[in-house]
Amino acid sequence: MSAARRLTWPRVLLALAVLLALAAALVAWLNVRGEDALAGSADSFVATPEQVARGAYLARAGNCAACHTDRGGAAFAGGKGIATPFGTVFASNLTPDAKTGIGRWSAAQFWRALHNGRSADGRLLYPAFPYPNFTEITRADADALFAFLRSQVPVAQANRAHALRFPYDLQASLAVWRALFFTPGVYAPQAERSPQWNRGAYLVRALGHCAACHSPRNAFGATRDSLELSGGLIPLQNWYAPSLASGAEAGVADWSNDEVAALFRTGYTPRGAALGPMAEVVYRSTQYLTDADVAAMTEFLKSLPQTPAHAAAAPAIGKEAFAHGAALYKDHCASCHGASGEGGRSPQGIVYAPLAGDRKVLLESPANLIHTVVNGGFPPTTAGNPRPYGMPPFGPSLKDEEIAVLATYVRAAWGNAAPPVSALDVQAAR
């Protein structure tokens, strides 16, 4: 029996080797599907003024500078670290420098980076660069973006090596991830929808890559397509990007078109203001969109199927903690937000947001409320709201325990019903 068993080991090993080879071949094939043969060189691309102007608009619509411009650095020269749960990815240099930027890239290589997530030298790109969304960008728009970036001043700044933990730093691991979670494909308009709706879907899903923040991610960092735009925690920033398909979070199905346009244009409406990461999106991107594109995005977002709100649970807060929270609120918040969270307006016309029934306050995740209390709330400076009024930070003056009690009180008072906040929640947000 032992001799027969020994004789089977070579067969077992051979079978395993064959399975591994087949798996590797499948992964390799999945990583090149949808890729066309590259054609043309960098010198063969001649941009028109119309392409450059179009690309400048698209770069703003896609908010490219947010990642590819480091604080205090040259525009589009890269170097900014993008923190992920797997380590830090550093944005690349998109200026037309021949050695460190895209000066030697062809238009086809740039298209492949957007569409297939592959660099000019063939390396697989990490999805911190949101090519799972950019894959739907049209070739014409990719060429226009390339034309704009090639028109920028070249900056000699070498790309920084990513600081990723093992095994996430391996191209083989990335190839497996892509085989499981990435499929290339250009946006296909839906025939039963209007041209305006399709334009909005294209801007939200592809160029604007809204799902990169507003969709939940699995343990491997991939967005869940079945829950597109249903809200998600932004990794390591600890801000929650609320669901765009829920009226209880950030859905706009019951908003007027003018209200949605005002939020995109100015970052502020009587219903609420853009804060945190969304304030940067409005500041760098959406305030510059054309009226037609704002209307298109509005039509698409208002059409999203709305998910029912979670049943509000009675917040667990004792009488002593409730009284402590009420005292903190009276001392630090009531003068602006009202004794009963009703909001108010100053003699100078400054509008103070109501907290009773406010969607930001009632989110299941308290992350955004904590950030606002700790760091302050600052809407973006825009052409339509050039001098926004911000809420001061209370992080320096209040302890974690006090902020937790205050936040819990606000989430429990005046008919509000949201889960309590702990000191550990506040510490994590800090």
Contiguous runs where pLDDT drops below 50 for at least 5 residues: none
C-alpha Rg (nearest Å): 25 Å
First-last Cα distance: 65 Å
Number of strands: 9
The amount of helix comes to: 40-55%
Describe the main β-sheet briefly: 3 strands, antiparallel
- Proportion of β residues? 5-15%
- Succession of helices and strands: HHHEEHHHEHHHEEHEEHHHHEEHHHH
Shape: globular
Give a description of the structure:
- It is a single chain.
- The protein is mainly α and 430 residues long.
- The chain has three domains: 42-181, no CATH class; 195-303, Cytochrome Bc1 Complex, Chain D, domain 2; 319-429, Cytochrome Bc1 Complex, Chain D, domain 2 (Orthogonal Bundle).
- It has 18 helices and nine strands.
- The protein has helices at residues 2-30, 49-61, 64-68, 107-116, 131-134, 139-150, 171-181, 195-207, 211-214, 257-266, 277-284, 291-303, 319-332, 334-337, 359-362, 367-375, 400-410, 423-429; strands at 81-84, 87-90, 163-164, 232-234, 239-241, 268-269, 272-273, 344-345, 351-352.
- A hairpin with a 2-residue loop joins strand 1 and strand 2.
- Helix 10 (257-266) crosses helix 12 (291-303) and helix 13 (319-332) crosses helix 17 (400-410).
- The longest helix has 29 residues, at 2-30.
- The termini are far apart.
- The mean pLDDT is 89.
